[in-house]
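seq as requested:
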Amino acid sequence: MVLTIFIKGIMKTYQIKSVVFAFLCICTVNQVYAQSSASDSSFHPYHVNYWATGSILGVGALANYLGIGKILNKEEVSQLEILALNRGIINDIDSWALKQDPTDRNTFENYSDYTLISSVVLPVFLIFDKKIKRDWADMLLIYLETMSITTNIFEWSFLGPTFQNRLRPVTYYDQLTYDEKKSGNNRNSFYSGHVASVAASTFFMVKVYSDYNPEIGKNKYLLYGAALIPPLVLGYFRMKALKHFPSDIIVGIGVGALCGILIPEFHRLQSKNISMGLYTSSEMTGIAIRWQPGFLK
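struct tokens:
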């Protein structure tokens, strides 16, 4: 139930059909599970507390549901706001977003959706690694936890659109009609949740692979470089779709990369003296981390 609600929440936020994501995940996991064989290796770098992780997914699903409502139901952009927009105060880098061809925006929005779908599914293929597939269930839980936290940071942190109302680049284009600009969703430019999700996915993939294969040594940094490519490509498509400024994309990459690396890292701290979870109240939602010294052995 929690998994269904969570997937539905993510896909509603980013306008993707949840059945595609769920189908690919389930089919891939079932295939590898059927092919997997017993192993005598005892190397398990991650530890999953099922009660804690289940709680995070449950609270995260509820917080995600509430956050979607706040973001998607913002007040329409008024004509006065649009008339008051000043291109002159936009910095040189962000001004790139105001030099696009608005007639191509729908095409690039479709490209961005395809990129998002393919990228968030990528970590599922980690279970084809012989060392990782023994722990495929734990990896799936950690991945869902990572995406849940990434989504809720987007929806509830002071950086995200719940507290920020930056107008999207589309509102600056005189070639477009007011009806094409007035949607309340056009207040959600900062920061890019699409890009954050993809960065969380690709950096999670590299982080997990590197932890299970420490013999790759410094080559892991090449993989981290490769992990930047999908969110950068998606960011380019989102800018061409007039959805985001470059700074929105940069922040999205940073938030997503941190989540993709740090959430699995927390699961390497195999101690009862450290715990992590989500909390929610009428005023805010966040990550609660409790640590007591002495957890390193």
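Residues 1-40, 293-297 have pLDDT under 50 and may be disordered.
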